[in-house]
Amino acid sequence: MRLLFYFMPGTVYSASVIGLDGHIVEVEADLAFGLPVFLIVGLPDAAVQESRERVRSAVKNCGGGFPTIRVTVNLAPADMKKEGPGFDLAIAISILLAAGRLRAVPEKSVFLGELSLEGRIRPVTGVLSVIEAVKKRGWTTVFLPAENIAEASILGGLDLYPLSSLGQLIGHLEGSRKIDPLRSEIRSSAPQKFSTDFSQIQGQWQAKRAMEIAAAGGHNVLLSGPPGSGKTLLAKAFTSILPELSLSEALDVTKVYSVAGLLEPDQPLMRQRPFRSPHHTASVASIVGGGRIPRPGEISLAHRGVLFLDELPEFPRAILESMRQPLEDGRITVSRVQGSLQFPANIIFIAARNPCPCGYAGDAERACLCTPWQVAKYQKKISGPLLDRIDLHVAVPRLPFRDLVSTRPQEASNEIRRRVKEAQRLQTRRFRENDILRNADMSGPLVRQHCSLDEASTRLIEESMKRYQLSARAYTRILKVSRTISDLGHSEKIRQEHVAEALQYR
């Protein structure tokens, strides 16, 4: 009598991250008699295809023989590109289910993790996005690497099973070695530490005032001055006067860093505002984001923080022009053949430049060695439309010797940050019914609503626009800066002196 054997497909769930969004992926394994072959279908990339060898070795080294028949694994939906090694664990469990080694797995549970050849489970990126996708579906169980538990527990409300090896998971599913789920909550953040404080910067009172205005309203800044005047030091100290990230802001930033694989193991939740300072040799894709399947670039890694471009004219023009749209919209769209993805880019943009190639044009003490043609060519590297999107144009002159050796105490960052917080509290109350946080984010209707001027202030702006041929965008940005200056002065109305100070930064 001839016996016929039928294998039932094994189905479990994993997740994929596209852009910053997590998507649940169904992993189906089917076994059939035939030549021993292991196929993975469903638009897998090279990393997913290579999981065949990792899964085969991991299953064998965890005490279970890998099926020596035809194995087919399908990742659904089939029209969504799958990338990365995070599917290894789900593929292994689906095969063990199909082979009858495991009887069942918890319903509506997600398996996430990369396998080593000996069966250890390695951490993966984008876990926070995956957890968000799981919670949106209403599911409650996630099996994932132990190294990712701290990040996964940020949102709370899920049963998280920390795993160190495939054998440990098999023992749990068989009932021989139970794993207790974790439901950790957000840990309190450590005090912020800054390498540079405003108390370390001698003099430059006007530049410090401009940086305070920029921090209070979220405005972009261009620092211009000779070498050694303190432009870079001012930029590096800037984050020390910014308020701490709120919980919602911290989650936004953490998601970006999780997808980019830049989260520190001991810092699952980003609590300090990012400060990104790429070199001028960086590529366009590294700044704006890119890749075959786009990943966030420097401008997105600076989301809710600071992007600092030192020696701005040295950056390629393609990079500088690519900054125009995100500075206006607070997000960046990266388009590829596979589709378009949006990444957040709500940043404070700080740039520094010298006035000419040698750096001393207009300096009162040192002669410039450049010809007028060289100076004009150098300054034209930055286009007018990009300059128009920068709210505060700040001159940082050479520091006089008496200021350099002065023992007069300089105002510390915590004092400036206190004033910045007070100004931002006014903005929080002002925009409580709008989806924005800072004056710089105001749309046209909000500017008209909250930036009304008296007759004297209107006349002052009108005269300035005629004299300096300012654009409509510059007019709007002057109003936003004036609103921030009035907030720092605890004034409900924008007065003429506020407008006058805003105009001097154009």
User: What is the CATH superfamily classification of the largest domain?
Assistant: P-loop containing nucleotide triphosphate hydrolases
Helical fraction: 25-40%
Mean pLDDT equals: 90
- How many helices? The count is 21
- N→C terminal distance: 93 Å
Beta-strand content estimate: 15-25%
Low-confidence sequence ranges: 1-6
Please report the first level of CATH classification, the CATH class of the largest domain.
Alpha Beta
Q: What is the name of the CATH topology of the largest domain?
A: Rossmann fold
CATH architectural grouping of the largest domain = 3-Layer(aba) Sandwich
Largest sheet: 5 strands, parallel
Secondary-structure-based class equals: alpha/beta
Judging from the principal axes of the Cα atoms, what is the shape? elongated
- Tally of structural domains: 3
Question: What's the arrangement of strands in the largest beta sheet?
Answer: 11-12-15-10-16
Total count of strands: 16
- CA-based gyration radius: 28 Å
Structure, described:
By secondary structure, the protein is of the alpha/beta class. It has three domains: 10-174, Ribosomal Protein S5, domain 2 (2-Layer Sandwich); 198-432, Rossmann fold (3-Layer(aba) Sandwich); 442-506, no CATH class. Helix content is 37%, strand content 16%. The protein is built from 21 helices and 16 strands. The chain has helices at 46-49, 51-61, 88-98, 127-137, 149-152, 166-174, 205-217, 231-237, 247-260, 284-288, 298-301, 317-322, 324-329, 372-379, 384-388, 401-404, 413-430, 444-450, 455-468, 472-488, 496-504; strands at 10-18, 21-32, 37-41, 70-76, 109-111, 114-115, 121-122, 141-145, 159-163, 221-224, 275-276, 306-309, 331-336, 339-344, 348-353, 392-395. The strands form five sheets. It has a five-stranded parallel sheet with strand order 11-12-15-10-16. Strands 1-2-4-3 form a four-stranded mixed sheet. Strands 5-8-9 form a three-stranded parallel sheet, covered by helices on one side. A hairpin with a 2-residue loop joins strand 1 and strand 2. Helix 19 (455-468) packs parallel to helix 21 (496-504) and helix 20 packs across helix 21. The longest helix is centred in the last third of the chain and has 18 residues, at 413-430. It is elongated. The protein starts with 9 loop residues before the first strand and ends with a helix. The model is unreliable at 1-6 (pLDDT under 50).
